[in-house]
Amino acid sequence: MSFKNPEFFYLFLLLVPMIAWYIWRHKKAGASIQFSSDMGFAKIPKSWKYYFRHSVFVLVLGSLAMLIAALARPQSSNSWQNVTTEGIDIVIALDISSSMLAMDFQPNRLEAAKDVATQFIAGRTNDKIGLVVFSGESFTQCPLTTDHATVINLFRSIESGMIEDGTAIGNGLATAVSRLKESNAISKVIILLTDGENNRGEIAPVTAAELAKTFGIRVYTVGVGTIGTAPYPMQTPFGVQVRDVEVKIDEGTLQKIASTTDGEYFRATNNNKLTEIYKEIDKLEKSKIDVKEFSKKEEEYLKYAMGGALFLLLALFLKTTIFRNIP
């Protein structure tokens, strides 16, 4: 039990002169009659009213004490919680170019990336998550938020062809940096996932990496694609046909981005490997935690105020009935 306004306890000092005044008045209140002897009164039994004659004053004192305690605002704080929060802001920058439709992942690279990322988001319950998509250009699909259900729904709605085709890795990374640069989180992270080489955009990937480093943002880069060739659905005059195309991932640039920002580069060649990569990133970032202790306080003044009012009403009732003074 603690008190929000303990200075009100000084009001208890006012009870001292009240008690002194009551004692003084009680001694002076009785009339004096001279008797030759009080032996005749010694055997007269005392009424119960005699023993409770001070009860009205005691109830008034109790009422005032309870009201003073209510003014001090008692609060209970016996419910404590230990809350662990990572305090991390994470933006996932996802390549949605047409090459992400290659079927070396099941059912394709884009759908596999979406499935694994949504599982990752669901496990980061205390972090803010944002989403940036890029192809020939980039834009923010979802700003940083703790509403993970919204992020996951927006993630699932992503499709290749939403924006102009191409692979603007630098633009995608720069857009992600712009979402994190004002963040006050203890750790700021970008997970950049792509399956190609930078061939579009006004910002070079390494330049965007330097920008991320300036704002203290760590970048994990993920190259998606098997080694060699991958089946890809191509539009032909005879309809869509699956053909093997060469897998080209600029691993050198992705490694440079990661090393510049104190991150890591990963290569995902299948669904299981991609899942393992996200688990590894999850483990790396969960090592940076901040533990805070919160106290859940509840106001307790109402029961004191009601107790004081009850004592006062009882005192008035006794004063005007059982202990009423007859003039």
- Strand residue percentage: 25-35%
Overall body shape: rod-shaped
What is the rounded Rg? 39 Å
Q: Given this structure, which CATH class of the largest domain is correct? A: Alpha Beta
Q: How many H/I helices?
A: 10
Largest sheet: 6 strands, mixed
CATH topology of the largest domain: Rossmann fold
The mean pLDDT is 85
Helix content: 25-40%
| CATH homolog superfamily of the largest domain | von Willebrand factor, type A domain
- Total number of strands: 11
Termini separation comes to 47 Å
User: Could you say which structural class the secondary elements and strand pairing correspond to?
Assistant: alpha/beta
| CATH architectural arrangement of the largest domain | 3-Layer(aba) Sandwich
Strand order in the sheet with the most strands: 5-4-3-6-7-10
Element-level helix/strand string? EHHHEEHEEHHEHEEEHEHEH
Low-confidence stretches: 287-292
Total of domains: 2
Give a verbal description of the structure.
With 327 residues, this protein is an alpha/beta fold. The longest helix has 20 residues. 39% of the residues lie in helices and 25% in strands. It has two domains: 89 residues, no CATH class; 202 residues, Rossmann fold (3-Layer(aba) Sandwich).
What does this entry show, briefly?
With 327 residues, the protein is of the alpha/beta class. The protein has 2 domains: 1-14 and 46-84 and 292-327, no CATH class; 87-288, Rossmann fold (3-Layer(aba) Sandwich), CATH 3.40.50.410. The chain is built from 10 helices and 11 strands.
Topology:
Layout: E1 2-3, H1 15-29, H2 48-51, H3 55-71, E2 74-85, E3 88-95, H4 109-123, E4 128-134, E5 138-145, H5 148-156, H6 169-180, E6 187-194, H7 205-214, E7 217-224, E8 229-236, E9 239-246, H8 251-260, E10 265-268, H9 271-286, E11 290-299, H10 301-320
Parallel strand pairs: 3-4, 3-6, 6-7, 7-10
Antiparallel strand pairs: 1-2, 2-11, 4-5, 8-9
